[in-house]
Design a protein that fits this description.
Elements lengths: L3 E6 L2 H17 L5 E5 L4 H9 L4 H4 L5 E5 L1 E3 L9 H8 L20 H16 L11 E6 L24 E4 L7 E4 L1 H4 L2 E8 L5 H8 L15 E7 H5 L2
Parallel strand pairs: 1-9, 2-3, 2-5, 5-8, 8-9
Antiparallel strand pairs: 4-7, 6-7
Protein backbone atom coordinates (compact mmCIF):
# COMPACT_ATOMS: atom_id res chain seq x y z
CA UNK A 1 0.00 0.00 0.00
CA UNK A 2 1.23 3.49 -0.84
CA UNK A 3 1.68 5.99 1.99
CA UNK A 4 -1.23 8.23 2.84
CA UNK A 5 -0.87 11.88 1.91
CA UNK A 6 -2.92 14.91 2.88
CA UNK A 7 -3.99 17.60 0.42
CA UNK A 8 -5.39 20.75 2.08
CA UNK A 9 -7.66 23.35 0.44
CA UNK A 10 -8.56 26.74 1.94
CA UNK A 11 -12.28 26.06 2.29
CA UNK A 12 -15.06 23.67 1.30
CA UNK A 13 -15.64 25.27 -2.12
CA UNK A 14 -11.95 25.13 -3.00
CA UNK A 15 -11.89 21.53 -1.77
CA UNK A 16 -14.72 20.54 -4.09
CA UNK A 17 -12.97 22.23 -7.02
CA UNK A 18 -9.68 20.53 -6.18
CA UNK A 19 -11.19 17.05 -6.10
CA UNK A 20 -13.31 17.59 -9.21
CA UNK A 21 -10.23 18.72 -11.16
CA UNK A 22 -8.27 15.74 -9.80
CA UNK A 23 -10.92 13.34 -11.10
CA UNK A 24 -10.93 14.94 -14.54
CA UNK A 25 -7.13 14.93 -14.72
CA UNK A 26 -6.90 11.22 -13.90
CA UNK A 27 -9.65 10.32 -16.37
CA UNK A 28 -8.06 12.36 -19.15
CA UNK A 29 -4.64 10.82 -18.59
CA UNK A 30 -6.10 7.33 -18.97
CA UNK A 31 -6.82 6.23 -22.52
CA UNK A 32 -9.11 3.28 -21.79
CA UNK A 33 -12.23 2.48 -19.81
CA UNK A 34 -12.21 4.33 -16.49
CA UNK A 35 -14.15 3.27 -13.38
CA UNK A 36 -15.12 5.66 -10.59
CA UNK A 37 -16.76 4.57 -7.32
CA UNK A 38 -18.82 7.42 -5.86
CA UNK A 39 -19.66 8.25 -2.26
CA UNK A 40 -22.89 9.67 -0.90
CA UNK A 41 -23.46 12.31 1.74
CA UNK A 42 -23.39 16.10 1.67
CA UNK A 43 -19.69 16.79 1.06
CA UNK A 44 -19.37 15.33 -2.48
CA UNK A 45 -22.55 16.92 -3.83
CA UNK A 46 -20.74 20.14 -4.73
CA UNK A 47 -17.90 18.38 -6.54
CA UNK A 48 -20.48 16.43 -8.57
CA UNK A 49 -22.12 19.72 -9.53
CA UNK A 50 -18.75 21.08 -10.62
CA UNK A 51 -18.10 18.03 -12.80
CA UNK A 52 -21.42 18.69 -14.54
CA UNK A 53 -20.67 22.35 -15.28
CA UNK A 54 -18.23 24.08 -17.63
CA UNK A 55 -15.29 23.94 -17.91
CA UNK A 56 -14.93 20.45 -16.38
CA UNK A 57 -18.03 19.09 -18.10
CA UNK A 58 -16.39 19.74 -21.45
CA UNK A 59 -13.08 18.15 -20.44
CA UNK A 60 -14.37 14.88 -19.00
CA UNK A 61 -14.28 11.85 -21.35
CA UNK A 62 -17.81 10.81 -20.39
CA UNK A 63 -18.05 8.07 -23.00
CA UNK A 64 -15.20 6.14 -21.32
CA UNK A 65 -16.09 6.65 -17.66
CA UNK A 66 -18.19 4.14 -15.71
CA UNK A 67 -19.85 5.21 -12.46
CA UNK A 68 -20.37 2.92 -9.48
CA UNK A 69 -21.38 3.47 -5.86
CA UNK A 70 -19.60 2.46 -2.67
CA UNK A 71 -22.85 2.04 -0.79
CA UNK A 72 -26.55 2.73 -0.96
CA UNK A 73 -29.50 2.96 1.37
CA UNK A 74 -32.07 0.31 0.54
CA UNK A 75 -34.55 2.82 -0.86
CA UNK A 76 -35.83 3.58 -4.39
CA UNK A 77 -33.61 5.78 -6.55
CA UNK A 78 -36.14 8.62 -6.39
CA UNK A 79 -36.08 8.63 -2.57
CA UNK A 80 -34.45 11.76 -1.08
CA UNK A 81 -31.94 9.60 0.81
CA UNK A 82 -30.73 7.67 -2.26
CA UNK A 83 -27.03 8.10 -3.04
CA UNK A 84 -27.81 7.29 -6.66
CA UNK A 85 -30.54 9.92 -6.70
CA UNK A 86 -28.21 12.56 -5.29
CA UNK A 87 -25.48 11.87 -7.85
CA UNK A 88 -28.00 11.82 -10.67
CA UNK A 89 -29.56 15.12 -9.63
CA UNK A 90 -26.21 16.82 -9.07
CA UNK A 91 -24.27 15.42 -12.04
CA UNK A 92 -25.34 12.46 -14.13
CA UNK A 93 -28.61 13.92 -15.44
CA UNK A 94 -26.71 16.90 -16.85
CA UNK A 95 -23.83 15.28 -18.73
CA UNK A 96 -23.46 13.15 -21.90
CA UNK A 97 -22.82 9.87 -20.12
CA UNK A 98 -24.03 6.70 -21.87
CA UNK A 99 -26.80 5.06 -19.79
CA UNK A 100 -24.87 1.79 -19.82
CA UNK A 101 -22.00 3.48 -17.99
CA UNK A 102 -24.14 4.18 -14.90
CA UNK A 103 -24.18 1.29 -12.45
CA UNK A 104 -26.54 2.11 -9.59
CA UNK A 105 -27.30 -0.25 -6.71
CA UNK A 106 -30.93 -1.31 -7.18
CA UNK A 107 -33.34 -1.82 -4.28
CA UNK A 108 -35.25 -4.73 -5.78
CA UNK A 109 -36.17 -7.76 -3.69
CA UNK A 110 -34.45 -8.30 -0.36
CA UNK A 111 -31.18 -6.54 0.60
CA UNK A 112 -29.23 -9.78 0.20
CA UNK A 113 -30.60 -10.16 -3.35
CA UNK A 114 -29.58 -6.59 -4.20
CA UNK A 115 -26.08 -7.21 -2.84
CA UNK A 116 -25.67 -10.35 -4.95
CA UNK A 117 -26.96 -8.57 -8.05
CA UNK A 118 -24.51 -5.70 -7.61
CA UNK A 119 -21.63 -8.08 -7.06
CA UNK A 120 -22.59 -9.82 -10.31
CA UNK A 121 -22.57 -6.43 -12.06
CA UNK A 122 -19.15 -5.53 -10.68
CA UNK A 123 -17.71 -8.92 -11.67
CA UNK A 124 -19.18 -8.64 -15.15
CA UNK A 125 -17.57 -5.22 -15.57
CA UNK A 126 -14.28 -6.50 -14.18
CA UNK A 127 -14.35 -9.67 -16.28
CA UNK A 128 -13.47 -12.04 -13.43
CA UNK A 129 -14.74 -13.29 -10.09
CA UNK A 130 -11.40 -12.93 -8.32
CA UNK A 131 -9.63 -9.62 -7.78
CA UNK A 132 -6.07 -9.26 -9.04
CA UNK A 133 -4.00 -6.68 -7.10
CA UNK A 134 -2.17 -5.88 -10.32
CA UNK A 135 -5.46 -5.00 -12.05
CA UNK A 136 -7.63 -2.90 -9.73
CA UNK A 137 -11.39 -2.93 -10.03
CA UNK A 138 -11.61 0.88 -9.80
CA UNK A 139 -9.48 3.73 -11.03
CA UNK A 140 -10.91 6.05 -8.37
CA UNK A 141 -12.75 5.38 -5.12
CA UNK A 142 -14.26 8.37 -3.31
CA UNK A 143 -14.95 7.93 0.40
CA UNK A 144 -16.50 9.96 3.15
CA UNK A 145 -16.13 9.55 6.90
CA UNK A 146 -18.95 9.59 9.43
CA UNK A 147 -18.79 10.89 13.01
CA UNK A 148 -18.46 7.30 14.25
CA UNK A 149 -15.59 6.56 11.85
CA UNK A 150 -17.68 4.64 9.34
CA UNK A 151 -17.04 4.85 5.62
CA UNK A 152 -19.34 3.67 2.82
CA UNK A 153 -21.74 1.57 4.95
CA UNK A 154 -18.94 -0.16 6.81
CA UNK A 155 -20.40 0.60 10.23
CA UNK A 156 -18.63 -0.10 13.55
CA UNK A 157 -19.56 -3.47 15.01
CA UNK A 158 -21.21 -4.84 11.88
CA UNK A 159 -20.28 -8.35 10.61
CA UNK A 160 -19.55 -6.89 7.15
CA UNK A 161 -16.27 -5.51 8.52
CA UNK A 162 -14.87 -9.05 8.55
CA UNK A 163 -16.08 -10.01 5.06
CA UNK A 164 -13.19 -11.33 3.00
CA UNK A 165 -14.87 -13.12 0.09
CA UNK A 166 -17.86 -11.10 -1.06
CA UNK A 167 -17.40 -7.82 -2.93
CA UNK A 168 -20.82 -6.51 -1.88
CA UNK A 169 -22.87 -7.20 1.25
CA UNK A 170 -26.07 -6.15 2.94
CA UNK A 171 -26.00 -4.27 6.24
CA UNK A 172 -29.21 -5.35 7.94
CA UNK A 173 -28.76 -3.05 10.93
CA UNK A 174 -28.14 0.06 8.85
CA UNK A 175 -29.76 3.14 10.33
CA UNK A 176 -32.60 3.84 9.73
CA UNK A 177 -33.00 1.38 6.84
CA UNK A 178 -30.93 -1.57 5.58
CA UNK A 179 -27.97 -0.69 3.39
CA UNK A 180 -25.90 -2.26 0.65
CA UNK A 181 -22.16 -1.70 0.80
CA UNK A 182 -19.02 -2.64 -1.02
CA UNK A 183 -16.70 -4.58 1.26
CA UNK A 184 -13.03 -3.95 1.98
CA UNK A 185 -11.81 -6.30 -0.80
CA UNK A 186 -13.74 -4.31 -3.43
CA UNK A 187 -13.07 -0.83 -2.03
CA UNK A 188 -9.36 -1.57 -1.64
CA UNK A 189 -9.10 -2.65 -5.28
CA UNK A 190 -8.43 0.88 -6.49
CA UNK A 191 -5.60 2.76 -8.17
CA UNK A 192 -6.46 6.03 -6.39
CA UNK A 193 -8.56 6.28 -3.24
CA UNK A 194 -9.61 9.61 -1.76
CA UNK A 195 -11.22 10.48 1.53
CA UNK A 196 -12.97 13.85 1.16
CA UNK A 197 -13.61 15.66 4.46
CA UNK A 198 -14.64 19.23 5.20
CA UNK A 199 -15.38 21.04 8.45
CA UNK A 200 -13.85 21.34 11.88
CA UNK A 201 -15.98 18.53 13.26
CA UNK A 202 -13.97 16.06 11.13
CA UNK A 203 -10.57 16.83 12.66
CA UNK A 204 -10.58 14.58 15.74
CA UNK A 205 -11.98 11.56 13.93
CA UNK A 206 -9.59 12.07 11.02
CA UNK A 207 -6.63 12.08 13.39
CA UNK A 208 -7.84 8.82 14.95
CA UNK A 209 -8.26 7.24 11.52
CA UNK A 210 -4.82 8.40 10.42
CA UNK A 211 -3.41 6.91 13.63
CA UNK A 212 -4.82 3.56 12.53
CA UNK A 213 -7.37 2.86 15.28
CA UNK A 214 -8.68 -0.49 14.12
CA UNK A 215 -12.12 -0.14 15.70
CA UNK A 216 -12.82 2.67 13.21
CA UNK A 217 -13.87 1.23 9.84
CA UNK A 218 -12.32 4.11 7.91
CA UNK A 219 -8.92 3.29 9.44
CA UNK A 220 -9.00 -0.17 7.87
CA UNK A 221 -9.09 1.04 4.26
CA UNK A 222 -5.91 -0.31 2.61
CA UNK A 223 -6.03 0.32 -1.13
CA UNK A 224 -3.60 -1.33 -3.52
CA UNK A 225 -2.89 2.13 -4.96
CA UNK A 226 -2.49 5.62 -3.56
CA UNK A 227 -4.53 6.96 -0.63
CA UNK A 228 -5.17 10.71 -0.43
CA UNK A 229 -7.00 12.77 2.18
CA UNK A 230 -8.55 15.82 0.53
CA UNK A 231 -9.52 18.16 3.37
CA UNK A 232 -10.12 21.86 3.99
CA UNK A 233 -8.43 24.13 6.50
CA UNK A 234 -11.28 23.66 8.97
CA UNK A 235 -10.81 19.87 9.00
CA UNK A 236 -7.07 20.34 9.46
CA UNK A 237 -7.33 22.93 12.24
CA UNK A 238 -10.57 21.88 13.89
CA UNK A 239 -12.11 25.33 13.49
Amino acid sequence: MSPQRIDVSPNAEALARRVAQWIVDLACHNSGRFAVCLSGGSTPRRLYQLLAAPPLRDMMPWERVHWFWGDERFVPWDHPDSNYGMAREAMLAHVPVPPGNIHGIASDGAPADAARAYQDELQSHYGATRLDPARPLFDIVLLGMGPDGHTASLIPGEPVLDEKARWVAEVSHGRPEPRITLTYPALDSSRSTAFVAAGGDKRTMMQRVLAGERELPAARIRPVGELIWFIDNAARDGQ
